[in-house]
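Design a sequence for this backbone.
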């Protein structure tokens, strides 16, 4: 027979785990600065990623037309005889989500990582053609 307090306790633990996972995701999103620009034929996302290797970055578009940029920033290897006096640089996972406009062509994406700045370019779909019958 299960204890009613055990059920409550397990539910509380599950909630706390979910909350801290969510809080970590929010912290990862807030800590990654980005600019989004619109041009006549494309959208450009510029994201600061200092210290992140290109192979540690993932760029994808989900089926709900959301651009997701995620990855992992690693701590440099510790060296023998070195003592940290202060550790302020962020490490760990990061993620940004950008809902895409309806005219974004999620099948035509390019990205480039240069000097710690990731630039993602998404082409726009051509405008719809209006046919008028006289």
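Sequence:
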């Amino acid at each position: 027979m299960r204890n009613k307090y055990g059920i409550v306790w397990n539910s509380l633990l599950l909630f706390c785990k979910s909350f801290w996972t969510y809080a970590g995701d929010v912290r990862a999103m807030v800590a990654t600065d980005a600019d989004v620009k619109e041009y006549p034929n494309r959208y450009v996302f510029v994201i600061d990623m200092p210290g992140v290797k290109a192979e540690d970055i993932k760029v994808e578009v989900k089926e709900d037309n959301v651009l997701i940029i995620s990855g992992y920033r690693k701590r440099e290897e510790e060296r023998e005889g070195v003592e940290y006096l202060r550790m302020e640089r962020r490490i760990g996972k990061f993620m940004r989500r950008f809902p895409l406009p309806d005219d974004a062509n999620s099948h035509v994406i390019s990205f480039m990582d240069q000097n710690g700045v990731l630039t993602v370019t998404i082409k726009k779909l051509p405008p719809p053609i209006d046919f008028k019958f006289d």
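The chain has one helix and seven strands.
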